[in-house]
Amino acid sequence: MQEYEQKIILTIDADKQIQQGVQTALPDRPVDFKFVDSAADAVVSLMVEAPHLVIACTEMPDGDGVAMIGNMRAMSPDIPLIILIGEPTREKVMAARAARPLDILLKPPDWERLASKVKARLWIDLELLRQKEEAAQQKAAKEGQKGKEQEPPPPPPEPPKPAFVEAVPKGAEVINVNDAIAGMKIARTLVHNEVVYGDKGQVLTDQMIKQLNRMGVPEICVYTDPALKRKAEERKKALLRQASAVATQQSSAGGGKVFTKVKRTAIRVETDIIGTYKSEDENGQPYESQCNIVDISAGGCALLTAERLRKDQVVFLTFILKDMQMENLRGVVRHSMARNAKPPDFPIRSGIFFDGITERDKERLFNKVFQIERENKQAEDKLRERFGYGPKRRRSTQ
């Protein structure tokens, strides 16, 4: 049995459950655990204890955890660091990435993932190292034997492999984060801006959905079933009824017709718009191509294209929504996935975040999306009134 060298791990977190979890995550390794529950003692403990690895939290009861991590990195630029975030914000994520950590995890973290990162950094698996050395020796022996024989002509060069596009798992679908509800299961590990927000197989909670909305995650890949879909539709209709009730109260109070903006940022409507987009390829060459916008909100859209788009690729969209013309609307690709399209005119689905929209265009898009949603609801109410079916009224037998 392999014997491992003892290591010192410094955990800076006031949460006792995190301290206990760190201890139980590494039962098969000799570790001298050191714990600090205040930001004031963090840098001092780093100098005194000289740990081999540090696990630090961005939320500390007595100070700024973000500033603490920056001071620790300045004092010890090369020490391995794992950062835990309890309440993610843009500033915390940017500061954590600037510290060049081994990993960034949301609290409570995936303990198996944390343990694998620590073990891979602090200990060498001698058995795995021995296997690699034997494989290298066998390869060198084969190459030496080939050198004695007559070398065959070199094979023709292989054609370039296409860029990897993450596919949607079987039985899963990509939905807008505003349509997600507690109980849905994540189909692919959710990583946004290099931060792990949820692992594959993890069940969504209301708290997780709030965090995803706060960080601007556009879409997620989840497993759904008819019951969860019905529940999501009922929640969306409840939000619209709430917005309508607020508008009615404002109208009766002021004596005029008022359209409320309550929950307007969360409204996303399905569309079938053919437009164009401009961008640059991997070599920096500009190009223009056709696209299909299948749903849209004031903050982003889902885009179907024939070409693969890269993550963080900048695109400029031009399209007509109803009677409103939008030209060169700047967006950033958040993800790109293959879809089973029949016919395969636009086989790639990408989530686009509008990062360069002006306040005027944003207000115009707000109003247009809200108008489309209201018209869809009015059309549905007319059908329900005419034919007597739907969730609000049972079909009449008279």
Structure commentary:
With 398 residues, the chain is an alpha/beta fold. It folds into 4 domains: 7-122, Rossmann fold (3-Layer(aba) Sandwich); 167-188 and 201-224, no CATH class; 227-266; 267-372, predicted glycosyltransferase like domains (Thrombin, subunit H), CATH 2.40.10.220. It is 35% helix and 27% strand. It contains 9 helices and 19 strands. It has helices at 16-25, 42-49, 65-75, 90-98, 111-122, 126-148, 206-215, 226-254, 359-387; strands spanning 7-12, 31-36, 53-57, 59-60, 63-64, 81-85, 103-106, 166-167, 172-176, 185-186, 190-192, 195-198, 219-223, 269-280, 286-296, 300-305, 314-321, 324-338, 348-353. The strands form 5 sheets. A 6-stranded antiparallel barrel has the order 14-15-16-19-18-17. Strand 11 and strand 12 form a beta hairpin. Helix 2 (42-49) packs parallel to helix 3 (65-75). It is globular. The protein starts with 6 loop residues before the first strand and ends in an 11-residue tail after the last helix. The model is unreliable at 255-265 and 391-398 (pLDDT under 50).
What distance separates the N and C termini?
A: 82 Å
Which structural class is indicated by helix and strand composition? alpha/beta
Number of strands: 19
Q: Tell me what portion of residues adopts beta-strand conformation.
A: 25-35%
H and E string = EHEHEEEHEHEHHEEEEEHEHEEEEEEH
CATH class membership of the largest domain: Alpha Beta
Radius of gyration (CA) equals 27 Å
> So, the CATH homologous superfamily of the largest domain?
Response regulator
Please outline the major beta sheet: 6 strands, antiparallel, barrel
* Overall structural domain count: 4
Q: Provide a count of the helices.
A: 9
CATH topology of the largest domain: Rossmann fold
Using the alpha-carbon principal axes, give the shape.
globular
